[in-house]
Amino acid sequence: MAAMAIGQLARAGNVNIDTVRYYERKNLLLPDARTQSGYRQYSGDSVRRLRFIRKAQGLGFSLKEIGKMLDISTNTDAECGNIKQYAEKKITDIQARISDLEKICGGLKQIAKACPGGDSPLENCTILEHFYKNEASQ
Amino acid sequence: MAAMAIGQLARAGNVNIDTVRYYERKNLLLPDARTQSGYRQYSGDSVRRLRFIRKAQGLGFSLKEIGKMLDISTNTDAECGNIKQYAEKKITDIQARISDLEKICGGLKQIAKACPGGDSPLENCTILEHFYKNEASQ
DNA sequence: CTTGACTCTGGACTATAGTCCATACCCTAA
DNA sequence: TTAGGGTATGGACTATAGTCCAGAGTCAAG
Fold first, then answer.
1. Helical H runs in chain A?
2. Exposed, middle or buried, B43 (CB in 10 Å: 0-12/13-18/19+)?
3. Sorting pLDDT into bands at 50, 70 and 90, what band is B42?
């Protein structure tokens, strides 16, 4: 596979060209080489790596986590368990976030339900009332 | 109620003193007055307003949204419906976010389940395999 | 040989929600 | 009067994930 320039890689990965350079600064995606004039050169592996990054991001991993996973994935001594650990931690994280949001949503629904809405004057707004109430507000 | 200084307000609202100044820069929480020497002075209303902000934040509203709600809440012409609209939009937003996270979590569980884990070599890792796969990646 | 497209670099800027800092002034109690 | 705590200000810095820009160099086609 012929070497490709940064623009081609960016197109292949469907990302902004500056994003590729950003990933390089973050040590996530280094060029295989540079031409004599300093142009970055990438291979098919870079495309796969870039797609890895985008896919993992889509699954909620941060670039930091992705960096660690990439480190593991290129470490010949590493084992499946190392990666699986990340995935399982991420699953737990997401579940916690969902549960948080459900609580928030439930609370919001409750106070919104009680609010008359429409052209009722603000004094009757139970949402504002709730926000202004004197309870322990974390 | 006697005027209070910024430190007292911060303690009453359980926030950092710089956070109060930050809210001022964002036009969310202006002091009622300044002493001759320039000290900010706050009233009990400020405490209620600060608590409003924190409570609404806890419910997932951004400072921008909170600012708009506060504007409405001090506008004598405003109606319940204006506030209720915000709450309902926020409920929809949160529900969408939950649904996104559930999708992500489901996908992650599926690929993690298939992964042998433990000391299995990385070539068998279905998580990495998934990330490296050539599918359309968003 | 020139033109246009591409790439290089470093640094600035976006959004969000703060936190921290130095320097200087103010206020109160001993 | 002096020590200490509180406060003022502007600006820098954090984290995350980029995006954009200017000025300069490179490359390939006509």
1. 6-13, 17-25, 44-58, 63-73, 80-114, 126-132
2. middle
3. very high
Pairing of strands A33-34, A40-41: antiparallel
d(CA A8, CA A108): 47
The one-letter code for the residue type at B71 is D
Whether B55 and chain A come into contact, CB under 8 Å, resolves to yes
Selection from B103, B115, B26 nearest residue B71 by Cα:
B26
Token duo for residue B80: 């319940």
With CB atoms and an 8 Å threshold, state whether A122 touches B83.
Answer: yes
B96 touches chain A (CB under 8 A): no
Q: How far apart are CA A49 and CA A39, in angstroms?
A: 19
Ordered structural domains, chain B, with CATH: 1-60 (1.10.1660.10)
pLDDT at B61: 82
